[in-house]
Design goal:
about 190 residues; alpha+beta; seven-stranded antiparallel β-sheet; about 35% helix
Length: about 190
Amino acid sequence: MMKSYKFKIEPNRVQMERIETTLNLCRWLYNTALEQRKFSYEKRGISVNYNMQQNELPRLKKEFPEFKQVQSQVLQDILRRLDKAFKGFFRRIKAGEKAGYPRFQGKNRYDSFTYPQSGFSLDGKYLKLSKIGNVRIKCHRQVEGKIKTCTIIRKNGKYYACFSCEIETITHSTGKTKTKTTSAHSI
């Protein structure tokens, strides 16, 4: 079973600039990858998928050194996000629903990035984020389970960390499900 926790983070000025830079680079990569898929299909009849785009990331970092400021798994997650949008688009077409082709993201529409496996750790009053630093976090409750992902969100000029945690469930002979929780502050 998965459970989410959302906490406010308080980055200093330098960390805020790094978060904003990361968001801008993530948005640029998303839009560029979307343009690549669209152009390849319309002009060349070639369908580009996640694996093809993900394999181009090392070359992208060589051509655009600013992408070295963003953790590699964050970049991979952006391409997964785009791939998920396309899979939803094709699923809706197949089901005969209103499809809604994936959209280019403007500055005010791209407000989060995700560390899918590593690059983050929760240490007391600080959240260690790869390429950003130790950001102060307001943990108002205990995090239970094993933290799987950390998503940094910008909303109304404030910043939040959202953790997705896996919690084990144990089924008793009565048929009721009880949740077994474990504390996980270090990741």
